[in-house]
C-alpha cells in the first residue's frame, strides 16, 4: 500500500472551530488496523436535524439502508463511523449488526436507536462484529468533546493519505454560524478498502426538509462532480447535521430552503462541500495530478456533465495526463462516446488554456512544446467547447498512474 | 511501447485458405512506421456485396463517414486500409483525403469511387496525405493475389502484439463456402494508436441486406461483447464482403437472412467473429489475463449485458484480477453500480467455478486458498447469478495492469 502523502495534498489540516452542540470522540477498536483509531462518535444536542445523500448503488451497505430509513423523522443524537469494515454484502447478519450498534450507542448516549446514524467503510463481505463497539462506547461517550476535528477526520481514513476537513462561517440573519465538515475518499470508490464518506455539521437552526434540500442541491456540483475511477461504492454517504444551537444566540429558524435568509449560508455550505470533494480528488489513489474538466457550449448543463464525466472517467485520457501528454485525440474520443450530441466540426479543445484543436481539426497555431509545458503542472485544466449551446459544467478528477494499479492490484491478504 | 507478444496470444497464425473472388496486397507507404507494411488493398470480383457496422461515437473518423454513406447500394470492388493515421478529427481536409484515396484506388482498380471502402487507424488529428496512396496503388493492384491473409493482418496492426485471423468452412446448400477474417484491436480502443478494425470475406453469394442482417446480429455477442477499457474509438469498423464466387459452383443465392439454408453458414460466420473478437481481448494493452464475465439470473439478456459490462469495465475489478485477488466485493460494487435491478440477498458470485458469495453474504464454504489458485490461471471466469430471472449474457475483457498505463501514459512523441 502507498503510504506517502499525495503530492496534491493541502499543506496542513485547516484550523476548525467548535460547532456548538457537537461533541466528538475517537477510539481504537481494532476492527482492522492495528495501532490507529478506527471509530468516530459524534454526539448532538437535542433538536439536531439530519439530512443525507447516499450511493446510487443497487447493492448498498447495511448502514446506508439504516440511515436512509431514519431520514424521517430525521432527528439525530449520535453518529458512529468506523473504518476497516464496510458491513456491506453481509446479509441478515450485517443488518443485525447495524441494529445492534445503534442500540449499543443509544444505550450509552441516552437516546433512541433511530436517532443514531451509522456509516462504515472498509472491506466488503466480512462479518461485522457490533460487539467491538460495545467495548469502547461508554468511554467514547465520556470522552466526547467539542472541536476534535482532525482526530475525527483521521479515524475515518482508509487508503486516504491525508485527513480531510473544511470549515466556513456565515451569517444567518445577523448571527454568525459555523459549518465544519470532514471527509474520506481516496479510491473513489474502492469498496475493498475505501468509500466516500463525508459529514458536515452546523449550529444553524435548519429544519430537516430545508437541510435535505440544501444538501441535495449542494452535492450536485461538488461530490457528484468528482470522479476518480468511475466506480461507485456500496457505501457512499454524505450526512449533514444541524444542531440549531445558534438559535439561542438569535439566529432565525429556517424551515424552507427557499428562505432568502439562507443565501449566505448556502454559499458557505456549498464551499465546504466543494473543498471536501476537491480534497477527495486530490487524494485519488495514486494521483499525481488534479484534473479539472470543463465542458462548455453543450445543449444543456446535463449534457455538459455527461460529456465531462466521459472525459474524466476515460482511462485513456487519464493515462495521457499521467504521461504529461496533451493528447487531445483521446479527448475527442471521450466526447464522441459520451452519447450526447457532438459535431466534430464545431469542437474546440484547450489544455491549460492552450487551444490544441479548433473547429474539427488541429489548431493551426498549436504549439506542442507549449502544451507539453502546461502538462507538467500538478493541476491540469482540460476545456472543451462543443459549439452547440450554452450548457456548461465542471468535473474534477485525477490522473491514472501505475500507483493506482499497485494500490488496487496488490494482493488483498 | 511494449513489443513482447501477449502471453494470451494463440500459438500461431491459422492456416487460412483463399476466398475465391478476393485478392490481397500490402505495401509500406511510410505513413508512420518505418520498416513495415502499413497499407492493405483488397480487390473484389464484380458482384461483391458489402455490409458494415461502425463505432457509435458521435465524432467518427472520415473513413467511417465514407463507408456508412456507401453501404447502399453496397457494392464493393476494393478495400483500402492503412495503419499509422486514423484520419479522424481532421475536418474538411480529412474528408477530402478520404475522397481522393477512393478516387486514386478507383482509377487503379478500374471501378467507381463509391465501390471503394476505406478504413484508417492510428493517430488522431494528424493531417492525412492521400498522396501516399498514389505512390503505391498501381503496384498494389498489380501485386494483388489470393490468400495473403497473414500479410494483410500484419499490415493493419498498430499496438497489436500479434496478427489476428480466423477462418471457417460451411455448406451453403450442398456447396462448401469459405469465410476468412482478419482483425486488429489491442487497446480497445486507443484512438492515438489503436482502434478496432475487422474485415471478413466470403465467397458465398449473399445479398447486401441479408449480409447486413447477418453481420449486425453476429456482432452483438462477439465484438460488442468485448471490452478492454470501456473507451470507444472514433474509427471502429467491421466490414463483411461476399464475393458470390461460390454461385458458379452451385451455391444458392441468399437474399433473406431468415433463409433456412443460411443456418450452417451463420454458425460458421459467428464463429469467425467470435474468434477474432476473442483475439482482440487477448491482445488488450498490457493484458496478462483473459477474463470471461458471465451474468445469469438477470431480468433480461439486455440487463445481464449491462451488469456484465459494468463488471468488465470496472478498473477495480480489473486491477484485482491483475493482482490475482478473488475480490468479490468489487464485483458486488460493479453489480450495484450497473443501474439494473439487483437484490443483495439473492446474489451469488463465482470465480473460476468456486462460489465465493451466496445469497447476500460470503459463502460459508468459501476457501480463499482455492480461490487464489484459480486466480493464478491465465484465463479467469467471473460468474454472477442475480437470482431474479432467466436473462444471461457473456462479455470478454482482460485485466488492467501497469503495462496498460505504461503503453498509454508514455509520451506520444
Question: How would you sum up this structure, described in words?
Answer:
The structure is a homodimer of 413-residue chains. Chain A has 413 residues and is an alpha+beta fold. Chain A has two domains: 261 residues, L-amino peptidase D-ALA esterase/amidase (4-Layer Sandwich); 120 residues, Roll (Ubiquitin-like (UB roll)). Chain A is built from eleven helices and 15 strands. A six-stranded mixed β-sheet of chain A has the order 13-12-11-14-10-15. A five-stranded mixed β-sheet of chain A has the order 3-9-8-7-6, with helices on both faces. The first copy, chain A, has a four-stranded mixed β-sheet with strand order 1-2-4-5, sandwiched between helices. The radius of gyration of chain A is 22 Å and the shape is globular.
Work out the strand percent of chain A: 15-25%
Count of domain modules of chain A? 2
- Uncertain residue segments of chain A: 188-193
CATH level-4 homologous superfamily of the largest domain in chain A: L-amino peptidase D-ALA esterase/amidase
Radius of gyration of chain A: 22 Å
- Amount of helix of chain A: 25-40%
CATH architecture of the largest domain in chain A: 4-Layer Sandwich
* Topology of chain A as a string of helices (H) and strands (E): EEEHEHEHHEEEHEHEHHHEEEHEEH
What summary fits the major beta sheet of chain A?
6 strands, mixed
- Strand arrangement within the widest β-sheet of chain A reads 13-12-11-14-10-15
Number of strands of chain A: 15
Amino acid at each position: 500500500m502507498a503510504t506517502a502523502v499525495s503530492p496534491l495534498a493541502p499543506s496542513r489540516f485547516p484550523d476548525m472551530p467548535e460547532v456548538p452542540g457537537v461533541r466528538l470522540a475517537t477510539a481504537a477498536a481494532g476492527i482492522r488496523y492495528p495501532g490507529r483509531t478506527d471509530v468516530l462518535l459524534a454526539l448532538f444536542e437535542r433538536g439536531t436535524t439530519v439530512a443525507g445523500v447516499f450511493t446510487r448503488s443497487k447493492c448498498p451497505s447495511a448502514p446506508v439502508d439504516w440511515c436512509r430509513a431514519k431520514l424521517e423523522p430525521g432527528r439525530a443524537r449520535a453518529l458512529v463511523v468506523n473504518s476497516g469494515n464496510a458491513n456491506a454484502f453481509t446479509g441478515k447478519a450485517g443488518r443485525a449488526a447495524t441494529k445492534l450498534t445503534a442500540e449499543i450507542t443509544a444505550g450509552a448516549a441516552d437516546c433512541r436507536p433511530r436517532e443514531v446514524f451509522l456509516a462504515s467503510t472498509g472491506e466488503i463481505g466480512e462479518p461485522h462484529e457490533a460487539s467491538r463497539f460495545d467495548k469502547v462506547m461508554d468511554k467514547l461517550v465520556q470522552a466526547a468533546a467539542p472541536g476534535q476535528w482532525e482526530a475525527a477526520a483521521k479515524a475515518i481514513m482508509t487508503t486516504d493519505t491525508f485527513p480531510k476537513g473544511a470549515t466556513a462561517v456565515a451569517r444567518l440573519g445577523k448571527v454568525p454560524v459555523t459549518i465544519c465538515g470532514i471527509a474520506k475518499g481516496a479510491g473513489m470508490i474502492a469498496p475493498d478498502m475505501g468509500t466516500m464518506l463525508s459529514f458536515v455539521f452546523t449550529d444553524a437552526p435548519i429544519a430537516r426538509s430545508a437541510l435535505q434540500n440544501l444538501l441535495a442541491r449542494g452535492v450536485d456540483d461538488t461530490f457528484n462532480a468528482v470522479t476518480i475511477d468511475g466506480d461507485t461504492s456500496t457505501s457512499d454517504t454524505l450526512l449533514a447535521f444541524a444542531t440549531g444551537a445558534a438559535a439561542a444566540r438569535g439566529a432565525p429558524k429556517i424551515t424552507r430552503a427557499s428562505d432568502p435568509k439562507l443565501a449566505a449560508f448556502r454559499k458557505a455550505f456549498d464551499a465546504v462541500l466543494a473543498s471536501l470533494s476537491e480534497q477527495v480528488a486530490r487524494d485519488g489513489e495514486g494521483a499525481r495530478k488534479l484534473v479539472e474538466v470543463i465542458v462548455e457550449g453543450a445543449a444543456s448543463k446535463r449534457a455538459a456533465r455527461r460529456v465531462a464525466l466521459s472525459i474524466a472517467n476515460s482511462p485513456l485520457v487519464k493515462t495521457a495526463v499521467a504521461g504529461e501528454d496533451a493528447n487531445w485525440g483521446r479527448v475527442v474520443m471521450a466526447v464522441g462516446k459520451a452519447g450526447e450530441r457532438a459535431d466534430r466540426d464545431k469542437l474546440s479543445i484547450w489544455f491549460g488554456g492552450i487551444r490544441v484543436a479548433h473547429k474539427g481539426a488541429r489548431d493551426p497555431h498549436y504549439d506542442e512544446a507549449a502544451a507539453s509545458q502546461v502538462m507538467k503542472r500538478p493541476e491540469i485544466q482540460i476545456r472543451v467547447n462543443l459549439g452547440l449551446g450554452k450548457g456548461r459544467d465542471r468535473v474534477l478528477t485525477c490522473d491514472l498512474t501505475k500507483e493506482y494499479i499497485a494500490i488496487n492490484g496488490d494482493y488483498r491478504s
